[in-house]
Amino acid sequence: MPPFTNSLQKLQESLNELKSEIDKYHCPKCGVRLESYEESNSATVTPSYNQLEDRILDLQNECKSLASKNKEYKEKIAEQEHTISEQFKELDRLRDACTELKQGSSNELEKTTSEQLAEISQLKVAAKAFAEEEEKLKREISERDKYIERLNSTQKTNKEQYEKSIQRLEDENKRYKEKLKSSQSEVDKLSAKLAEKDRINNDLVSRRLEIEEKCKQLERDLEQRSRKEIGVGFHTTVAPSMSSLILGGLTSRLTDRLAGEKVDLVRQAYSGGPDVNFPLLVVCVNVSRIGADAKEALKGIPKAKDVALLVFHHKEAHALPSQTSDKILTGADFSGLGSIIDLAFLSQRGIYECDMNNVGIERVASFLLQYKTQRK
């Protein structure tokens, strides 16, 4: 019960007691008898009527105030009762929800409990394995402790041996230093001798290099002296540009061919005339009739055995004549020549690679090798 309800009840009881007390007296205004008041209060001092009236007014005012408060308390009580009713309704809903939750949670709890039991079983297995592993680790730790103890003992022994070895090495090092100091002078002497030996060796190496260079020079001189040479002259009446093309290619190929014979080709100047002291190669370019071209090329040239007529055909390889020029040029104008040789060239390529040129170069080389002489 609320505290204000208790206060109201006590106040109501006091008011009832007061009314019963007042009923015992006669009021002058209302005609109520006062004998009871006199009888009850004969042994005490009689209160005045005004005091009693004031007391009644105070009590009436207090009753009005209490009535007003009672009304307020009743309203508050009504509100509290309404609130409590709502709370009871909410509590019923919560109880229903709790019931549903308990029913729903029961299955889940059973499932969770089963899972937890399975997990507990697994944990027991894992705990057993862990215990075995722990025991194994303890044994390993014990073994390692023993091993470490042995290592410490061994280390201590090794340290003592190491210190002894260090002392022995220091003593030996001291003796070696004394020996090294005593032998330093000998080392200096040996270094001086070694330096002298190196100087002599360097001199010998220099002299050997000089001798080798002289030997190589002698070999080159000997080779030059053992080589032979052929002084050869060239004569042509063709234009300078074509003459340079033909003679350049001819000289190059003859030089390569004669190099294998250790023979050098030395070109001699020939300005015409009957006096020839070296083999002479006369260049004839076949542009029309071979006979007329050959006679024109040999004009003013002696018909001697040391003169060879080189007939150059300005044609492709497939158009070259099959019959050689020495079979055609058989008259008296050509009978005294040393050789008549066919060759081929083109103005764009010079003396090109073909069977006629291979045979012709070989014949020219054979002709010239008749006149090789010792190199001067």
Give a brief description.
With about 375 residues, the protein is α/β, with parallel strands linked by helices. Helices cover about 65% and strands about 10% of the residues.
User: Main sheet, how many strands, which sense, barrel?
Assistant: 6 strands, mixed
Q: DSSP strand (E) fraction?
A: 5-15%
Mean pLDDT reading: 81
The top-level CATH class of one domain is Alpha Beta
Number of helices: 7
The span between the termini is 159 Å
Elements, N to C (H/E)? HHHEHEEHEHEHE
Radius of gyration: 77 Å
What fraction, in percent, of the residue positions are helical?
55-70%
Which structural class do you get from the secondary structure elements? Answer: alpha/beta
Shape: elongated
Per DSSP E runs of 2 or more residues, the count of β-strands stands at 6
Q: So, CATH architecture of one domain?
A: 3-Layer(aba) Sandwich
The residue ranges in which pLDDT falls below 50 over 5 or more consecutive positions are 34-45
CATH topology of one domain: Rossmann fold
Tell me about this structure.
The protein is of the alpha/beta class. Among the domains are: 3-101; 228-374, Rossmann fold. Helix content is 67%, strand content 10%. It contains 7 helices and 6 strands, in the order H-H-H-E-H-E-E-H-E-H-E-H-E. It has helices spanning 3-22, 35-40, 49-226, 240-259, 290-297, 325-328, 355-369; strands at 228-236, 263-268, 280-286, 307-313, 339-344, 373-374. Strands 1, 2, 3, 4, 5 and 6 form a 6-stranded mixed beta sheet that branches. Helix 1 runs antiparallel to helix 3 (49-226) and helix 4 (240-259) packs across helix 7. The protein starts with a helix and ends with a strand. The model is unreliable at 34-45 (pLDDT under 50).
